[in-house]
Amino acid sequence: MGLIVQKFGGTSVGDIDRIFNVANRVIEEKKRGNDVVVVVSAMGKTTDQLVQLAKAIDDHPPKREMDMLLSTGEQVTISLLTTALIKKGFEAISFTGWQAGIQTEKLHGNARILNIETKKLSSLLEEGKIVVVAGFQGVTEDGEITTLGRGGSDTTAVALAAALKAERCDIYTDVTGVFTSDPRYIKGARKLSSISYDEMLELANLGAGVLHPRAVEFAKNYSIPLVVRSSMERENGTIIEEEISMEQNLVVRGVAFEDDITRITVEGLKDEINSLSSIFGVLADHGINVDIIIQSRIHDQTGSVSFSIKTDDLHDTIHVLERNKEKLGFDSITYEEGLAKVSIVGSGMISNPGVAAEMFAILAENHISVKMVSTSEIKVSTVIDQKDMEKAAQVLHDGFGLAQQKTKATI
Ligand code: ADP
Ligand code: ASP
Ligand code: MG
What we know:
Strand order of the largest sheet: 3-6-2-1-9-11-12-10
Order of helices and strands: EHEHHEEEHEEEHEEHHEEEHEEHHEHEEH
CATH architecture of the largest domain: 3-Layer(aba) Sandwich
Oligomer: single chain
Structural class: alpha/beta
Bound molecules: adenosine-5'-diphosphate, aspartic acid, magnesium ion
CATH superfamily of the largest domain: Acetylglutamate kinase-like
Largest sheet: 8 strands, mixed
Radius of gyration: 22 Å
């Protein structure tokens, strides 16, 4: 008998029937003799609707107030699910993030979990209770409610699994596992039976919304086996773990894509070395994530730097840079919206230097021009026009043979 953490996403708890379906999956696990902690998201599209409500007042609502608002979504679900479990004759109790002892840094909208005070949850589990916790939220040292970033309930679940030393964390969602690419958009996307933490971390960071990147990070750091599976269908999901059996000699394991990318260019850097460190320092201090960075030197001795960000951060980025213009020492800022990032990921790339070339060739054959590139040992990312995103992902998925059982062993 061990402890299992189960997490159910928005679609899986979208209405009362589905909440009863979730209650049944929880009860099944409990009847197998396990202790169960359940983490849930807000129902259906609740979080999006709450965002729209706030934006009807102000396009850039105060971040503290957004956390106050968005954290209510999950609070509805914990209460309804717990009520369903009690109605079915099981002892259950619900907790918000702060009640569950989930402490975060003080960064509204995208906080990291720093610590989980598990005493209360552990003693309730010992009493045999099913514990239901609100995903996506925590509390700072000084009692402020924070949220963990969109999709952050996965991270609540894995962090609880790590803190409570769970045997496994099961992420129940609206697809049957992790696929070679998003099955909603890519024809022939195929479910993977397993994938390594590192590959999953890259895919998640590069836009495969099926798992929150920090959830994968926690799972890797604490060696928590993570399973992604369907809350509706009864089939084996995908296991994410350290060592995976090489079911095929895969070079590329997945294609990820992400829209709403903007490229910012800061021109006329006077003192390039200091300006560069100050620019990225000041953006980091404001919680703005910078992705691909390209530096270039113009003839007149001044330099320029381009970098990509999420378009959601455009307003803050410009604001922060302009406010610090003197200190940062630059002339002007330009930007290009309407971009997207399409990436290929696979640990087989380490020993296959031709993969990036193959990727560019496939994109060129399809008349898709590449604006920025970044690589690591196990991924190649390209920034392209957003209008080409789905086509690029599809031709790369086809081109690297991901839909078939056998992938090219060498390139
Ligand atoms: P939940 O509300 O359960 O957290 P999400 O919408 O966050 O669900 O994540 C599930 C969705 O992730 C799927 O519906 C699918 O469209 C998308 N997705 C993106 N990339 C992948 C992938 N590689 N494999 C599976 N699903 C993916
Ligand atoms: N409800 C939050 C969101 O929609 C968190 C989550 O579902 O994981 O992003
Ligand atoms: Mg999710």
